[in-house]
Amino acid sequence: MTLKEQIATWFAYFIIAVLCLFLAVIVRFGILSRLRARGWRKRLRHPKMAEVESEWGVRLPRALEPFFESKIVDRFEFYLAPPNSDRESEWWYVAGFIPLTPQDIAAWIATTKVPGIPIADDGSKGVYYLPFDQLRQGKPPAVLLRPPGWQPKDIVVASSVEQFIRFEPRAVPKID
Domain 42-170 adopts which CATH fold? Predict the structure, then answer.
């Protein structure tokens, strides 16, 4: 076999490998993710806190359960703002909440790699979460936002879950 034929053969193998990888990505994220996420809206207002605590060895704040059973978690694409805040710079965009079930939490942790329990997303690949270290130490956890990027720096959204659940929903301002 000539050098030209060897190069052509290796190039063909490379193309086949790239196509197989592309197909695997489509199957994983286009099909399997949708199958796993099916029914998430039903699970959203029915948190399985004991199961999540058991799965990850954490203690979740009790205030989360009534919050996730409330209608606010049904909302999409809105802002959460500290009470009486009129400065948009203090508002936090929420694309949607994440069901507090082992199935959903595991999928979000696998996808985002956040070091905690994800509770909402910001629509730009950012995730609001409760850090494992605080949950495992029995400390009241802060609510953090892990923005997208290679080396994201977490942002403290609220110093506690209790503070976070007092935030008020605000409509997305209309752009003129």
Answer: SMI1/KNR4-like (3.40.1580)
